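HUMAN: Please help interpret these tokens:
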Amino acid sequence: MYSLLIIDDEEKHRGLLARLLAIEGYKISQAGTAQQAWKQLEQEDTDLVICDVKLPDASGVDLIKEIKVKYPQTEIILLTAYGNIPDGVQAIKNGAFDYIVKGDDNDKIIPLLNRAAEKVDLQQKVKRLQSQLNKKYNFDSIIGQSAALQDAIKLAKKVAPTETAVLLTGETGTGKEVFASAIHYNSLRAANPFVALNCSAFSKELLESELFGHKAGAFTGAVKDKKGMIEEAKSGTLFLDEIGEIPLELQAKLLRVLEDGSYYRVGDTKQYKADVRLIAATNRNLLEEINVGHFRSDLYYRIAVFTIELPTLRERVKDIPTLANYYTTQFSAKTNKSITSIAKEAMHALQNHEWRGNVRELKNVIERAVILEDSNTLSINSLPFELQDTASKVSSNGSLSAFHLASVEKLHIQKVLNYTNGNKAEAARLLNIGLATLYRKIEEYQLKS
């Protein structure tokens, strides 16, 4: 039921209109003055307003503008006197949905209100979808509490509201696109497109067309003009995944976009202007790529204004149970199963696996295991053989075998921490590792410090 406020100082006309529209299913409230109208608007959520042009204490045309400023989702229809169409025109300029001449057949107002109600519906749907998007891509939706991950999230939160180019580095499967999406949807460009392109998925010719677009006839198969991703992302964010795979010739063209915002479609002589924020990602060491001549140093310094390194899952062992349980619940629901827990032995195997594919690999392993599992608990037997083999090397109390390199490292770090009486800076110096690395190791091995 839509809530409708009728603002008219003529009580008889207002009452007649109220009775007519109540029959149509609208929830009616009434006001005879602008002051009364404001009280109603503040007390109740109002979807629709019908407002007379002449009120004792205000102009209906001016009141519309004020209402739209404070309640932009409310749709307003103006009642104007016969022969005073300019008021209706001005009302539209002030944000009214439409106007109707007072005294006309009342049947005209019902279709008009129905169309205004449809617009209210559409606005509410857009608002809900935007809310869902914001929730989905909120930084809080990135799963994990490890120090390394939280450090990366803090950096991403700081850079998100700016226009600065961002370079996300890290191994494959660490969640670079998830971070890129979160940065976009928490930026000033959030209402505009987020366009992602995997640069490793195309040949040089196709990648150029995908990035910059092409003109009809530019090459065989180009039967019509095509927008590129740069144009599709107008006023939004362009995410270039695996940017290290872009050929040198295209790197020069991309550099020009970043320097002065100009580019050409393939086969076109017309210059286009770009308005995008760039977020790039790579699992390569671009500085090494520069040294061997595979990547332009000038492009690197354009895209690496703000670099965020995403931690591997091996650096986030503490997060594995949370991630594993999350994906188990997710895939259990998708496959109509009721798996509610993960067996202790299976969890040990997950925590002691190397995870070279990182979070993506973990997600795939859990999906497969959920499909295979027949009970309510995810068991070791549902995991891939290589993880079952890992489990066989784990002792009954969950600790690593004394022959494992990780076990030796854990023991050595603990001895150094004991030697320095818990002084982490001194321990890091003696171990010849960074202090941040030491903190991660302490967290990973659950050491006493």
Q: What stands out?
A: The mean pLDDT is 89. Residues 109-136 form the longest helix (28 residues). The first strand starts at residue 3 and ends at 7. Residues 68 and 95 are 6 Å apart (CA to CA).
